[in-house]
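[Automated response] Your request has been received and processed.

Submitted sequence:
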Amino acid sequence: MIQKAFCPKYIKVSRKTTKNDIAAIYRSKLSVLKQTFSTTSFSFAMTSDNWASQHKRTSYLSVVLHYLDNNRSLNKRVIGFKLMTSHMGDAIATTILEVLREFNLQYRVVSITLDDASANTMAMSILELDLRSYVGGFVIHQRCICHMINLIVQPSTNVINNLLILVYAAYCLFILMY
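Generated structure:
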């Protein structure tokens, strides 16, 4: 009723049609992206992160490529977003390698940025055997500086928060007294 009042030309579409349309668009965009990767003459840098959803108790891993296209424009594309069963190094390495192989990029990645978790260090030791880049036969493992800064700053924020609570309480007491 509201649809007819505000948009009389609206035609209802089924969920199946919507799903099929989205899948068709995805396949066409994926094909274009794979073609772009195959014709790009530069190396690829990859970042990946994994996290757990507290609400659903599931884990995910993202794989993002950073690259220069043939016009030397910097690009970033999410090429993988996978459901994970484990946060162990071998599972992370297997998933990353699976995504890279899907795009035929396993020999074109020159650096991988992961956070400083021990599972990621293990994943890199596994990946280095499989990802032999054409730049000297090795892959650079970069640890994410933002993650390291967060690990350094996080403990101090608890101390600062406690001090701020005391300062605020003293301020409120001062206001009440005067």
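Summary generated for your ticket: The helical segments are 2-6, 15-39, 89-102, 118-130, 145-177. The first strand starts at residue 44 and ends at 53.
If you did not submit this request, please reply to this message.
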